[in-house]
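Re: the pair you flagged

First of the two:
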Amino acid sequence: MPKFAQASEEATAFLRQQTGSTQLECYTYIDPMNTDESFFIVKTSNKVIHVSFTEITYDKSNYTSLLQGLYKAIYE
């Protein structure tokens, strides 16, 4: 069954601030029943990157921690 990611203004703003890119866009799919199925799609000027929540180290009670983990998973 296909999963549809929604545009995430907060994640886009966070990653743009961290990277300085104005072209970057971030989309997210969150499955509240099974976070192992949740993921981000990050579109840059020349790439589309898929990052599963399982690939990110973060505090599950803190969304900012999730965004910081996303940044680290891609750029560090």
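Second of the two:
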Amino acid sequence: MKVIITQAEAVEKGIWSQVMSMFGVDDEDEVWPKEEYILTEDQARKLELIR
């Protein structure tokens, strides 16, 4: 299973810094609120998006 989350959703859920780390994004990179990140099932579980 894959889970898709946008940058805006990650910020809203308070997990944006963790998503940034998972995808190698840093503060200097330009990102858009609707930019999508595809998480594996294990990543989604670590972020507590699914159980």
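The mean pLDDT is 97.

-B.
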